[in-house]
Amino acid sequence: MDDNATASLYHRLGGEAGIHRLVDTFYEIMDSRPEAAGIRALHPDDLSGSRQKLFMYFSGWFGGPPLFTDAYGHPRLRARHLPFAIGISERDQWLFCLAGAFKELQLEQQLAEDLWEKIAPMADHMRNQEDSIPGCPAHSDRSAES
Questions:
Q1: Average pLDDT for residues 15-29, to the nearest whole number?
Q2: Burial per residue of 88-121, b for 16 or more beta-carbon CB atoms within 10 angstroms, e otherwise
């Protein structure tokens, strides 16, 4: 995806109001779905600060006003998330909430694909834990080879 397509994500989502809808729906799913219980547990009881920071970050990252950078400086996302154990499960739960928000908001297919193409690699980059998936031979055999 070129820079022009990335910059237009903010407008394609509907600007400030669209970003708020995406973030609010994302956190409503996280707060209510048992499939997201693990990632929800990493957040404070009151999600208002998390909602605001994600809104600010998405605003600038999707080509709108750089609200997060203006308020907090360079995002340094991975460093900011190091205090939290984020593995494959947490990444997948976060992406589950995002995919659910896309579906609930009935985003145009191409917009959802363009957003996913940008967000999924970032979500994977936040991982700071090696995961062992119970019952998965590919993961359990790895420790036996060491």
A1: 98
A2: eebbbbbbbbbbbbbeebebeeebbebbbeebee
Residue 97: the pLDDT is 97
State the SS3 of 66-126. Answer: CHHHHHHCCCCHHHHHCCCCCCHHHHHHHHHHHHHHHHHCCCCHHHHHHHHHHHHHHHHHC
Going along the chain from its start, the domains and CATH numbers come out as 3-145 (1.10.490.10)
The CA distance from 21 to 33, in Å, is: 18
Region of poorest pLDDT, from 3-7, 63-67, 137-141: 137-141
